[in-house]
Design a protein that fits this description.
With 117 residues, this protein is an alpha/beta fold. The termini are far apart. It is built from 5 helices and 5 strands, in the order E-H-H-H-E-H-H-E-E-E. It comes from Streptomyces griseoloalbus. Belongs to the barstar family.
Length: 117
Amino acid sequence: MTYDLTDRLVVTLDLDGVTDKAGLMDVCARALGLPDWFGRNWDALVDCLADHTVWPEGAVERGLLIVVRGWKPYAAARAEEWATAQEVFAEAADRTASLTVALALGGFSEQGSDQPG
């Protein structure tokens, strides 16, 4: 099965420097423009991710692709929290067909390529 994600609004969650759940929630709130009433807990995050009414402008019409990058250090440092975060992303995507969450496996750092030189 293939999914056409080309027209979706893309929001990047850059977890570089995130060391705990509070940091993850801050990144999500900022990047997605979540409302002030966002409770910064797992249940509130899944509810907001699955709720079209709080999505960034243009995402409802086009669909939303959330790309999570820089997650590996957080996953290594807080494996249990990261497992829960993945469950939250998956549950929200399961609730809403127009939401896709993708984990970026590589990319570029502030100083250049992450690839070995």
